[in-house]
């Protein structure tokens, strides 16, 4: 095999691989996918089937998943949205979950057992989570599972935010979490992916894939002039979003949070801390 397949995006192990890869990879067996959905507020996608394994990303409620193996409480699977491969807890998935009709547009919202904010919430959902809505009750939507969610915190899945940068700005001061993808904690590329998804733009999960797959290159000089709101600034292993021609918004381990700061000092600090130079600036159409 001459092509090296990305392990993050390829459902293939030495002992098992997806059926559609038969003839492309070597494996002892091949399996057809079983379609399932995430039914918990979010679920950790880990590199190995154990709770202390590296967290690669998180799958949000309503996400569709292709499951290739279920074993000892773990499902080896591929997320349909961004093709990421890993292990999800089996109890976070269901094969009979209804197709979502709405998604969470607020940074975070609660699911109540009835149409009252005074009731103890059943769970909380982060921006981008999806729900199947089957009814209404006053100021609440009613989910297929009987939960009640404040109407203004949801929108139908075909509604897209006009400004993805404004979506990203809602995450200001949210803690940094490697592999995280919720308002409890997220990393730099998750901030970009979630914000773009809210605007109806599909994006890969990791910064290197985003650098390759998003937008058009913007020429830049030492002074970093001529940038625009919405430009994406890339380093090796890092990405941020310009909120204006001089200001960068990013989730960074430097502050362990999402911050907004002048781009040039951020560039100089990242270089001084061995993060390397800016590798690309990309502009969406």
Q: What is the CATH T-level topology of the largest domain?
A: endopeptidase fold (from Nostoc punctiforme)
- Give the mean pLDDT: 97
Largest sheet properties: 6 strands, antiparallel
- How many helices? The count is 4
Any idea what the CATH architecture of the largest domain is?
A: Alpha-Beta Complex
Structural class: mainly beta
Which quaternary structure do these chains form?
single chain
The CATH class of the largest domain is Alpha Beta
Strand order of the biggest β-sheet: 20-25-21-22-23-24
SSE topology string: EEEEEEEEEEEEEEEEEHEEHHEEEEEHE
Distance between the termini: 36 Å
Q: How many β-strand runs?
A: 25
Strand content: 35-45%
Number of domains: 3
SSE layout:
Elements lengths: L16 E2 L11 E2 L2 E5 L3 E5 L8 E6 L3 E8 L2 E6 L5 E5 L3 E2 L7 E3 L3 E4 L11 E4 L3 E2 L1 E5 L2 E4 L4 E3 L3 E3 L7 H6 L11 E2 L2 E2 L1 H11 L8 H7 L2 E2 L14 E4 L2 E7 L2 E6 L4 E6 H10 L7 E4 L2
Parallel strand pairs: 1-2
Antiparallel strand pairs: 3-6, 3-9, 4-5, 6-7, 7-8, 10-13, 10-17, 11-12, 14-15, 15-16, 18-19, 20-25, 21-22, 21-25, 22-23, 23-24
Task: Give the gist of this structure.
Helix content is 12%, strand content 36%.
Q: How would you characterize the overall build of this protein?
A:
- The protein has 285 residues and is mostly beta strands.
- The protein folds into 3 domains: 78 residues, SH3 Domains (SH3 type barrels); 55 residues, SH3 type barrels (Roll); 120 residues, Alpha-Beta Complex (endopeptidase fold (from Nostoc punctiforme)).
- The protein is 12% helix and 36% strand.
- The protein contains 4 helices and 25 strands.
- The strands form 8 sheets. Strands 20-25-21-22-23-24 form a 6-stranded antiparallel beta sheet. The protein has a 5-stranded antiparallel beta sheet with strand order 8-7-6-3-9, with no helix packed on it. The protein has a 3-stranded antiparallel beta sheet with strand order 13-10-17, with no helix packed on it.
């Amino acid at each position: 095999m001459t092509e090296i397949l990305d392990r993050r995006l390829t459902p293939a192990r030495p002992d098992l691989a997806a059926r559609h890869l038969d003839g492309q990879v070597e494996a002892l067996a091949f399996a057809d996918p079983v379609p399932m959905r995430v039914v918990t507020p979010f679920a950790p996608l880990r590199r190995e089937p154990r709770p202390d394994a590296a967290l690669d990303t998180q799958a949000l409620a309503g996400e569709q998943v292709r499951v290739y193996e279920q074993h000892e409480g773990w499902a080896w699977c591929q997320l349909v949205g961004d093709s990421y491969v890993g292990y999800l807890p089996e109890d976070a998935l269901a094969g009979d979950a209804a197709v979502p009709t709405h998604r969470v547009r607020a940074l975070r919202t609660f699911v109540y057992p009835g149409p009252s904010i005074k009731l103890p919430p059943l769970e909380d959902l982060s921006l981008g989570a999806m729900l199947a809505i089957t009814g209404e009750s006053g100021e609440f939507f009613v989910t297929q599972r009987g939960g009640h969610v404040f109407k203004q915190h949801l929108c139908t899945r075909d509604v897209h935010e006009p400004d993805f940068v404004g979506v990203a700005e809602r995450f200001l001061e949210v803690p940094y979490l490697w592999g995280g993808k919720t308002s409890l904690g997220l990393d730099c590329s998750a901030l970009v992916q979630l914000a773009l998804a809210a605007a109806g733009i599909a994006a890969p999960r990791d910064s290197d894939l985003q650098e390759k797959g998003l937008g058009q290159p913007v020429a830049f000089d030492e002074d970093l002039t001529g940038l625009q709101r919405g430009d994406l600034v890339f380093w090796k292993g890092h990405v941020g979003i310009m909120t204006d021609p001089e200001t960068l918004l990013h989730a960074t381990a430097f502050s362990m949070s999402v911050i907004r700061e002048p781009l040039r000092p951020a560039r100089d600090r990242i270089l001084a801390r061995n993060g390397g130079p800016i590798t690309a600036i990309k502009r969406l159409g």
